[in-house]
Each structure stands twice: as C-alpha cells, then as structure tokens.
Amino acid sequence: MSDMIKTPDYLFESSWEVCNKVGGIYTVLSTKAHTLQELFKDQIIFIGPDIWKDAIPADYVEDTTLFADWRENALHNENLKLKIGRWNVPGTPPVVLVDFSPFFKERDQLFYMMWESFQVNSMHAYGDYDESCIFAYSVGKVIESFYNFYRLQEKKVVALFNEWMLGMGALYIQKRLPEIATIFTTHATSIGRSIAGNNKALYAYMDGYNGDQMAQELNMEAKHSVEKQAAHYVDCFTTVSDITAKECKQLLDKEPNIVTPNGFERNFVPEGEVYDLKRAEAREILLHVAGKLTGSNISPDALLISTSGRYEYRNKGIDVFIEAMNRVRTSGRLQREVVAFIMVPAWVKSPRADLKYAVSEDIQLDKPMQMPFCTHWLNQMDEDKVLNYIQHIGFTNTASDKLKIIFVPCYLDGQDGIFNKTYYDLLIGMDVTVYPSYYEPWGYTPLESIAFGIPTITTNLAGFGLWAKKNVSGRDLAEGVVVTDRTDFNYFEVADVITQHILLLSSKERKEVEAMMTACQSLAEKAEWDHFITYYQQAFDIALTYKQNRNTK
C-alpha cells in the first residue's frame, strides 16, 4: 500500500450486531474481523450492545487483562459498565460491549443536542428509535473515554459507525472529538427499505422520490433524519453497493464518498474431507426431518433447494420463491424428487413436539403430519404470509407430490430443537439456493452460498447480483450464479426464469454439478476480504484527509 494513503493507528467499529446476530451486518463484521485484526493487531476495537446483563454472549470471550486499567477507570469515573474481551470469530479482535441502560435518563438532552447541532428531528420517534440512539450515544461515550484515557491525541484515529442505529454515535464524536475521523456506512437506507416494504414501486419512480417527503408519508421521519444528517456530517459516507449508492443520492441527498462492498472469509468454509462429511450430515438431517414431516421416504438423491434471510416477504422475494417452486412442481417435467426449504426466522412459539419425537425416535409415518409445511409452531400461525401462500397455491406435501416445500421459521443457531445445526451446517447440504430479491442492498446469502460451493440464483436488484455480473454473464448456473433481471413489475417472469433453471439443474450429471461447485468457489474467491478490504483502506484515507482539512480551516 502506498505511503501516500493515510492509515489509522486505531480503528473503532460499532454496530448493533457486534456479538449480537440479528442480520447480515453481523456477517459483514464477523468475517471482516480477521483481515482488520491482521492489519491493526489489537488496535481494531469492535463496540456492541451489552443486552445480555449477567449472561455471556455465545461468541464473546472475556479477557480481564485487556484494557484493564481503562475498564476500572471508566466504571468508577464515567459510569460505563463494560464487558471487555474478544469476539470469538476468526481473528479474535478486541470487543467492548456497553450497557447503555444507564443513559436513558439523558435522552432528552441528547435529542436536544442532536437537533441544535445537526438538525436531527427526533420528534416523531417510536419503536426501537430511542433504544438505538441511546446505544449509539453510549458508543460515543466509550470511544471518548478510551481516547482520553490512553491519550490518543497524537494518533490517527478513525471511528466507523454502521447503519442509522449508530448515527448519533457518529454525530456525537463529530461534535465532541473533532480530531477523530468519522465514517458512517448505510447498508440499506431506512426510507428505501420502507418504500419497498410498503409495496410501492421503488425503482420505476426512483427519480421522483423525495426522501424527506416519503419519510413523512411512511411515518419514518426520525430514523430518516438521523441517517440523513449522519451521512451529510461525517468525514466519509459509504454504502455497500452501486444500487444503494443511487438510492442514497436520491433519498438522502448525499452521494457516498466510496462504495465498500461486503466480502467473505474463506476460513468460514470447511475443506476436503471435513467439507464432504459436513455435507453428508446436512443432507441426512434435512432429508430425515422432511421425511418425518411429510410422511414420505424421500430419495437420498433428492434435489435440495433453499432460500433464507430476513422475513421480508416481498423485499427478499419469498413470494416469488414459493411461486417458482409451485411452477416446478406442476411443470410435468420434473424427473427427480425436490425438497425446497424456506429458512427465514419468524415469530416462533416452539419446536413441534410431534416432529421432534418422530425425528429422535425415527418413527415411520405413512402420511403427512398436521400442517406438513412447518417445522416449528408459530404465534398467530393462521396470519403467517408464507404458510398462507403455500396452502393457497395448492401444495400438499404428500408422497405423490414430487416437490415438497418446508418452512423452517427459526434462527438456525444450533439450538432450534429440530435440526440443532447452525445455518452454515445446513446450507452446505443444499444443491442450489434461490434469492429472488426485490430489495437487497448487498446480498450476503448468495455470496455465502457460492462460498460453500452451492450455485445460486439472485437478481440484478441485489448489490451482489450486480457485482457478480461484472465477473460472469449471470445467465447459466454452470458459472455458479444466475442473475435474473427483476423490475417493479415482472414478478411472474422472474418465477419462470427460476423454474427453468431448477428444471435444468435437476437433470444434470454428477460431473456437471462438480464443475458448477468449482465455478462457485472460484467466483467467491474474488469476493474475499483480502480483495475488498482495499475499499475500506480508501475510506479510512478519505476520512482522515477530510478530518485534517476540516480541523485546519
């Protein structure tokens, strides 16, 4: 790297998802950690929320020697209640988890300061806004405390804040410690996601949307305000894909300084005999559970398909996935058994006791269970969009149905009560994945899929899909990725494209499938953090340069 590029001596990175697996940002940070730790050698410090109280997060390891003098001082002099240790992911970087509850009493002063200094309008806040902003404020306090205690005034320091939830942290540092360079990354604009989630045509009318006006219409004013002002005031504003950069320019009135795409880390994927063993184990449990739920003897050679992600029925294309699976099922051209899994966390009540018993005791049933589409009982089951559409469209999951569809509505953390395997330990058993997203700023799920050697179908409305098309044609699963064109209005055409590719795949020979897996992994290598970290290094340089100019004015 050139000496001309400014590199921080210390880097703080904060997110609601540090040691707190909620969505894709956890994957961004936990996979990036290894590369950042190699670059900064314990001078990269992740900051997350301590929502655990007396409990310990599964991926956190306490280290009482780490910053011990500061921890003691912060508690006694600044009322900062901290868990300090290491994030138990590759690289094991330092992590600070902050209990933000003591700061709720300062909410009104914080919101007033944010309005007075940055025009952040919190008047119409509701839901998770207060909690997120108080956490962001506490992150600012943690960075301020660390900076002052270790006297970092002569050091180059960068603080990176992820998503609107951390916006007030970025603004707090900008106001209180202008000598720290700030970066704010939006992974999806709150208003863009809301427009898409409210069944409005986001892309056809993008040029006509006014972010402030839409925020008022959709009751998103507070979140939009903090996100927009953070984007405008920080030293470097970034987002994760070209498609979201356009969204930021239109809806936040701010073009990102740089696009920082999301990479993946090879050390999350097993290799050689371990890979083969894990794949065999995944297929065994997937077929076992599917067989018990549907009362069928499913062929060991069945084609296994999945979709996954957040439960955003339209945005993630879950509706299109179900539609496409039905077209495959009723095509009359399916020569091979297929099981399609929808691995999307919903409002789970409990694992099904009947299914759990049948799986553990290997009870052989001769007909489908009651509600043979779902592995767990849900709260308000009769209102669930996935189950309602599956039943409405005519799936039966009987032995004669060549394609069976199963909703796995739980977080796959290895303790769900039915599979008891993590998401990656089930993904590895799939033959193909499908992510027909309508709104997908990046798209970790298809990237994870190809990293595990599983070909994937996604769309050109996903940041990853656009990136993939720079490297392959996107027209053939033989390349590892199919990128289908999706618009606001071509739902059924997308379902047709998926159907054709699944039918083609179901008739492929083993050699063709093995070549496909190799193509997946070759493409995934191009998206490893080793390559993508350079975009962050440019962001650090932009932030430090802008900070320097700002402070010499």
Q: Approximately how much helix is present in the residues?
A: 40-55%
As residue ranges, the low-confidence spans are none
Q: Treating each run of at least 4 consecutive H or I residues as one helix, how many helices?
A: 19
What is the number of E strands? 17
Mean pLDDT rating: 96
| Rg on CA atoms, Å | 24 Å
**Biggest β-sheet: strands ordered side by side in the sheet:** 3-4-5-2-1-6-7-8-9
Give the termini distance in whole angstroms: 29 Å
Question: Would you tell me the structural class of the helices and strands?
Answer: alpha/beta
| Inertia-based shape | globular
How can the largest sheet be summarized? 9 strands, mixed
Our estimate of the beta-strand percent is 5-15%
3D structure, described in words:
- It is a single chain.
- By secondary structure, the protein is an alpha/beta fold.
- 43% of the residues lie in helices and 14% in strands.
- It has a 9-stranded mixed β-sheet with strand order 3-4-5-2-1-6-7-8-9, sandwiched between helices.
- α2 crosses α4 (129-149), α7 runs antiparallel to α8 and α11 runs parallel beside α13.
- The radius of gyration is 24 Å and the shape is globular.
